[in-house]
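HOLO CASE FILE
Compound: S-adenosylmethionine
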Amino acid sequence: MKNSVQKNNSIEEIYSKYSPTLLKELHILTRDGKLNQDSRRKLKQIDHLIQFIHPLIQDVLSSKGQLNLVDFGSGKSYLGFLLNDLICQHQLLPYKIIGIDIRHDLVTYCQDLAKRLSFPQMEFLHLDVSQAVNSNSLPTSVDVITALHACDTATDDAIFFALSKKTKHIVLVPCCQAEVASLLNKRKSLDLKKNSLTEIWRHPLHTREFGSHLTNVLRCLQLEAQGYDVVVTELVGWEHSMKNELIIASKSNNISKKNIAKNKLFSLISELGIEEICQRFMMPEATT
Ligand SMILES: C[S@@+](CC[C@H](N)C(=O)[O-])C[C@H]1O[C@@H](n2cnc3c(N)ncnc32)[C@H](O)[C@@H]1O
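Model generated. Tokens follow.
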């Protein structure tokens, strides 16, 4: 799996790749064409992510001749609009970029913007990520899913959706997730006497950080157990965001790797005594 991208483009080089009209609409450029200081970080981060997503989109378009991409917790959909601007609208094959978000105001904002910019291939739905798998508004076949800082368990719901739809490529930049940390916390007094490794999460701040790290480890094992090759890398440097872990999973179906990952997933959960979390990392019944 390709995961090397250029990291050091200057901000001027980055913004020159995109349409100035779009950058103004997204308030990344001011009305008089200057770069909005507050948006520099966002543009750099999303441009970096787009470099990882580009080959995945090309892979789907060349193998399938069309593309459905769903962005979970799309917010103002910087990612969707910039992807559309840089990659999708310059090729002739049919595609759809669909953003879903629980916030009605953001969905309306994005719908209006897509209409104003004449992007009929972009759709925005007011939908809770946890309900996406049962929604008739989404296509039955989804090739790429993205979830960029989708809050708390929304990342897990996006994974559940992708596994149900047998989505080929999954791109995640997880946000904070409190579920695992709260289970570690619950068992803390029991566990601390047992094993010096439990020192890793004794202090509350460490419980939170280790819980978050462990959640991502479990997500990777879950994806590998379902036949995905997984790459974990950095989205951008720490100076830009505290949540910069990028997980890219692509379907490969290597049976022996699947079984190893499944066993590791269950042993890890059991060794940490957090069996209550098991359901979260189970395989959904595929719906396509
Ligand atoms: C931190 S913002 C990230 C927005 C965008 N992905 C980005 O990186 O610019 C998280 C977004 O996820 C949305 N969100 C959180 N939980 C959600 C859920 N359960 N279903 C749908 N959207 C959700 C929020 O409304 C918010 O717009």
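CASE NOTES: The beta strands are 67-72, 95-101, 122-126, 144-148, 169-173, 228-234, 245-251. The mean pLDDT is 88.
CLOSED: yes
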